[in-house]
Every structure is written in C-alpha cells, then in structure tokens.
Amino acid sequence: MTNVTDQDRVVIFDTTLRDGEQSPGATMTHAEKLEIAELLDDMGVDIIEAGFPIASEGDFKAVSEIAERSKNSRICGLARANFADIDRCWEAVKHAEKNRIHTFIGTSPLHRAIPNLTQDEMADKIHETVTHARNLCENVQWSPMDATRTEWDYLCRVIEIAIKAGATTINIPDTVGYTAPMESADLIRRLIETVPGADDVIFATHCHNDLGMATANSLAAVAGGARQIECTINGLGERAGNTALEEVVMALRTRNDIMPWHTGIDTTKIMHISRRVATVSGFNVQFNKAIVGKNAFAHESGIHQDGMLKNRENFEIMRPEDIGLSGTSLPLGKHSGRAALRDKLETLGYDVGDNQLKDIFVRFKDLADRKKEVFDDDLIALMTLDEEDDHLQLVSMKVTCGTGGQAESTVELEVDGKDIIATEHGDGPVDATFKAIRAIYPNKAHLQLYQVHAVTAGTDAQATVSVRLEEDGMIATGQSANTDTVVASAKAYIHALNRLIMRREKTGPGADAREISYKDLT
Ligand code: KIV
Ligand code: ZN
Fold it and tell me: pTM for the whole thing?
C-alpha cells in the first residue's frame, strides 16, 4: 500500500461475542467464546467487545477470562448508563493489558421515553456515568443508542458532554438499520465539524443490516471521517444482523483505489473464523453471502469457467487464498495417513495437538471407509464435533420408512453408562427418531431449529445437521455430520441435549439465562 498515513487506519471493533451472541439462538458456550476471542485476537482485530458483564455470571466470567488471555487486542465490555453496570464491566475488563469500558444510553425520543427522562436529566446522567467510567479506565467508549433517529441538536449536545466527561471514542449506532450511505457519511462529517472537542476523539460507526445497507453505511461513515468500524463475523446479530467484518475489510482492501483506508486484519484468517462462528452459533452462512458464502468463489457456469481459464481476473476481483481458502486441493482417501491429515487440517486453519489428531484420525478413517473421497468440507464437518463429556451416547439405531409417511425408529442410547432402548413411530424417520430419544431421556426441551446441509455433492455426501433446543431460557445448539442424514440428525439432537445437561449441571435450572435480557438495554 502506498501513501498510507495513520489517519488512514480504520480500527476494527468486533462485537461477535456481544451484539452477535445476543441474537436469539446464537448463544455460545464459555469454551466457544474463548476460542472465538483467540481467533479474533490472532487475526488482528483491534478491539474485541467480549460481552455484557452485568448480564449474567456467564457473561462476566467470559469477559474476565478473555481479558486475561488476550495477547494483542484491546478487550471491551458493555455497560448501561449506571454505576453498577460500569463497575461490573471494569471488574471484568481490568485483567486485560489493554481494556475499554463501553457505556451507552438510548438518546432518540423513543428511547428517552423508556426510562422516562427529560433531555436535561439524560444529559446529567451521561455526564455522571462517563465521568465514572473514565475514573476507572483510561479508554472509554460512549454510544448514543439509536443515534441516527436522535434530534440533531440533542445529539451534538450529548456527544459534547460525553467528550468533556472523558470519552475517548464516540460511537454512532444505527441501532435499527435505518440510515443510508449518503446520510451516514454526512452525519459523521457534520458531527466532526460541529461538536467541540470532536477532533480529540475517534468516531465509530455501528450499523445494523435491516435494509441490507450495513456494509455500505459503515464504509460511507469512514468516508465521512469515522475511523472505527463495529462489526461481527458473518454479520451475526439480531434481526438482519450487524455489519459483516469480512465485507468491510475485503472492500477496503479490494477497492483501496477509491477507499484509501486500511485495517490491521490478516485476511487469510477470515474463512476459518467464519466457519467456526457459523458452527458454534448454529447460524449457517447463506451460500451466496459475500466473501464467505460457499458460492462466493465458485464459478460454475460454462461461460465463467472458460473466462476463468483464460484469465482469472475476468471474473475474480479477489483471490480465494486472500481469505484463506486453499485453491484446488486433492481429496484424501482411506489410504491417507496421519501426516497427510495433519497437513490438510493445517491448511484449513486447524492447529491440532497429537491427542486431538489421534481422535480425529479415527473419525476420518471411519468416514473414508464409507466415502471414497474425503474433501476439505468433509474434514471441516468432522472438526465441528466436539469432545464434551457426554451423558448420552448413541449406541445404535434402526429406522424403517413406509410410503405413507409413517416411520418407525428404534434407538439404543447409553445414558450415564446404562443402555436403554426405545421404539417410536413418527411423521418420517427424523420425527420417529427424536421421539425415541425423548422416550429414553424425557425432557421439556423445545426444538427451535432443525437444519440439514449436504457438505459436498454426490449421493454419498455427508449431511451436516444443526439442532437448537431451548429449555427454561437455556439454549443449546448441537451439530453432527454423517453420510446418513437420519444418523446425523439423531447425533445432533443428542449433542444439543448433552450441552443442555452440561449447562444445567453447571448453573442450575434457568441460571444460564441472562438475568438481564438484551431487550432491556436501556
Ligand atoms: O445497536 C446498538 O445500538 C448497540 C448499542 C449497545 C451500541 O448495539
Ligand atoms: Zn448493535
């Protein structure tokens, strides 16, 4: 890159673990949050918003541990505009070498009405809470939630108060995804020109994707003078999600000729973290999603293939390897050894220890016996299976289907070391199988999501299945992959049940559910 100055540097603030994880159903386990934080740190994310410490004991522990482990990234926690939230946030983030308190309040007329505060009362509260945060931490971010629907004069007034009280970053959230690119650029530009002290802080943009404009709005905000983009991996987030990290980062890189700003992200780590976030959140990436969708680099039509063979730039504006997609790679087979497997996993971004490799190798051999060619996507599916202590394990199953839709499933499970068998009938093989599992292990868990994907082409393709269960406010997602879709379904259901049991044991009924719902964020 040429002619780059510090003022051209855009800070990447990732909120996958806070705004992304608060999306209903995207709940991650403690271990998963630590893993994602490590990947974000490793890929060069400047600031990780690791959670909302006062929301639950689980959030607090996750933010604290991420803070203790962070190597390069600044670790940030979210706090509402009150001293208890801010103190709890500081308790969690203070362990990081570089930390930040992010405090916010809804400033638009609609949001002001919720706590029933006058403009003056809210202004006082902002002054007090930002001052308090700044007395604890030298790096404070303040957000006027729903900024894009806040009256201009009031917005300028409260930003000035926050800057005077010591905020070092002012974030402008488009909470409901309402703005548009020209307005987004204009808003930031005018704020920087108008608000006294604006030159001494960094302006950030935080966009939601309700109208499909989050990426465009974020980039426009940068054109207007913002130097921090708030985003999530895969655009994870409530409703239509947040700005997708991979989209803004790759747009800045690919069109640097007209958007002369840069980030510190190692883009070759994008694909791996995208897959991990999809797996642990249970939110699969749509096939035609920009940058990380399965089809984003597939050029299947005859015309495109011909063009690609002549010159790949005909149809490719980015190279797959830029985001960590290995080019054409030969599939493994049943004669492939451990070294080849380790090698392949490394190119896919997995750093496995000897014991883990042993375990994966057994599963790989089992798959290779059933499937002639084991492709990269098959291995990625294998890697989604985790090794938690399982209370329930599938021993065997037998399913018969009839043309009338009724199916019979006999399932044998090992429940805490004891074998139990049940046979049930249902509307198709998956329904019968889930009923048989429930007969063996009665539970009140409500099935929120059941999703099947073929990993590769062909009738011997593996199916990956995601199952999301909810019980007393606790949510658990299970995944499995198998060449038999019904077996994968049973295993994914059992995986989700095991996770629910594990959480119940750790926290007691209902305790993992956030004491403060994200719906109460005012
Ligand atoms: O969308 C939003 O307004 C938020 C705030 C908490 C910054 O996520
Ligand atoms: Zn948000």
Answer: 0.84
